[in-house]
């Protein structure tokens, strides 16, 4: 009878040990799941931070592109104004040159007429 009792006690001890192992495994699994959830949360936070940083960088790039486009527009306007000013100066210079040339031609024509008149008077003597 003692053998049966000892065998029953051993079986009960094994059953309790099995339950204890299962509880320990369940606890370890819960801890591992909690650790995995914490790691996933940290990864999600890091991904969110990286996405926010990328969005900020993209916004800064858009701002820089807008500023560059504005500078290009300003430079184009300045170049246009400079071209208009240069064209105006060229027209003024050409007008002055034409006026001076015409004045010189009129003066030369007057001198030629005067010389011709003198020659006619000399010939008439």
Can you offer a commentary on this structure?
The chain has 125 residues and is mainly α. It is 98% helix and 0% strand. The chain has one helix at residues 2-124. The protein is rod-shaped and about 180 Å long. The model has no long low-confidence stretch (mean pLDDT 82).
Task: Summarize the helices and strands and which ones pair or pack.
Elements: H1 2-124
What are the main properties of this structure?
mainly alpha, 1 helix
Largest sheet: none
Spans of at least 5 consecutive residues with low confidence: none
Task: Write down how many β-strands occur, each being a DSSP E stretch of 2 or more residues.
Answer: 0
User: What's the shape?
Assistant: rod-shaped
Give the end-to-end Cα distance, rounded to a whole number of Å.
Answer: 182 Å
Helix content class: over 70%
Please provide the ordered H/E string of secondary-structure elements.
H
Number of helices: 1
> Which structural class is indicated by helix and strand composition?
mainly alpha
Oligomer: single chain
Rg value? 53 Å
Overall pLDDT, averaged? 82
Short note summarizing the structure:
This protein has 125 residues and is an all-alpha fold.
């Amino acid at each position: 009878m003692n053998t049966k009792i000892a065998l029953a006690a051993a079986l009960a001890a094994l059953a309790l040990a099995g339950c204890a192992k299962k509880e320990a495994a369940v606890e370890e699994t819960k801890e591992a799941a909690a650790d995995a959830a914490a790691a996933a949360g940290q990864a999600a936070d890091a991904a969110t931070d990286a996405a926010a940083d990328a969005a900020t960088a993209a916004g800064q790039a858009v701002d820089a592109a807008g500023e560059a486009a504005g500078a290009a527009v300003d430079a184009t306007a300045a170049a246009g104004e400079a071209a208009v000013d240069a064209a105006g100066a060229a027209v003024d210079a050409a007008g002055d040159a034409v006026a001076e040339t015409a004045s010189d031609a009129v003066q030369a024509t007057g001198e030629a007429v005067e010389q011709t008149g003198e020659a006619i008077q000399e010939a008439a003597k």
